């Protein structure tokens, strides 16, 4: 290669990305294209890589936004601002293989620049971990007997691990790094042979009965299998079942008092809908199956209580894994089931069986120090989802803790509209403190929501001007959103009403109360943002009218 030739990296937004159009527009509004070459070195630009790093990260962030992050992404960000810890990790990690590919193929005399870039990206990843919201507190260095036993069993079946099991404050058991682990290290490797998935059940008598049940899913078949296998003393997975808790304490087990406390919140709706669905499902299967095949479905093993336990097990512990034949299967994975959730996870990519080793690997996307808890992400879930199906509230500010809005005319979209945020059909809100842009036309509120109401008031509006008509429309937009927020607040009674008995609350009442407080905080932040926005716009309106009079 010519010594004078430019050294650059190409970042590309996949045309198969579900949000291609929106991301492309966001890239364009930041001055980039969906196939953007970033120059690292050229004879005319011989300096360091720090500017290139900023640009690479800015583009990679947009490419890796998920739906919620994209909904709340506004285009007026400075290059240092992150969208979420998950997005930042994904973006930074996506740059490393691009550098490695260049390093392995490139004959450019300045490959030291690529090494320098790699070191910078790894340092940014490390920094993100150091700044992460709150670390977990390991309460007991060694796991108790059952967990040790399970680890030993796993190892004798081919599991390779750099993790130990210990108790973690507020999260039950967790997986702790037994030595310093760096990006790319495999924290845990589980052979397919010990992954509980539909293949296991196919050979059983139970499967032959259940496959004839119309519309039954493989998840339900597995769930029913696990209800019986749990009691099977000769099960291959005896040690695994012994390590499971007697109770899961998810939202599905909320008692009447906790449910009463959560009335008016999204959590109440989510738990009630999920419980109703499970009751229906149970009612369709039992007692019919136990009456018809009592040996396969012994009535004492197939009570509603046991069914709910199995649902909680599968909701809170299963993972969706892509097998080598291309099928996606919901699985229980012994040992990996000890990994807790974090908003800034160490492990981002773990969902695919490696055909070369026929195992599932859990590689690190950020370093984990010896003795630190190693976490993954269960998904970008709201707090109501995490309580309903996992039974906990995450530490720190959850960027995915959104409240969906049921706007009756959400489908009225102007198809000719070419604004970045035009085609959202679902709308949502979250705490406006998560936004850094409280300026005119943003107010900390999501742009797709503002644009939806703007178009409702003025379908022809294409630009945000300081003209009287646009400003008057803007006031109406903010008043509409304020009105929705007020209605939400009216449904939420004041949690200080419960102050007296908060101390001796049960686990579920505490969660319900904490959730209600959080939902009120979100709605209050909306009201504050609308009010300050209305003040801001009215001030501009007064200025505009004064100028008109003078003019
Ligand atoms: C897959 S299991 C993880 C292992 C679990 N801690 C245990 O003791 O078996 C998922 C459950 O762990 C707990 N959990 C996971 N992440 C948590 C977190 N960040 N904070 C509190 N509890 C958490 C919840 O009870 C959740 O239902």
From TrEMBL:
It holds the Pfam family Rubis-subs-bind. GO terms for molecular function: protein-lysine N-methyltransferase activity. Coiled coil: none annotated. Residues 161-379 form the SET domain. The keyword Transferase applies. One of its GO terms (biological process) is methylation. Gene3D superfamilies: Rubisco LSMT, substrate-binding domain, set domain protein methyltransferase, domain 1. InterPro entries: Rubisco_LSMT_subst-bd, Rubisco_LSMT_subst-bd_sf, SET_dom, SET_dom_sf, SETD3_SETD6_MTase. The keyword Protease does not apply. Keywords: Methyltransferase, S-adenosyl-L-methionine, Transferase. Transmembrane segments: none annotated. This is SET domain-containing protein. It comes from Acacia crassicarpa (northern wattle).
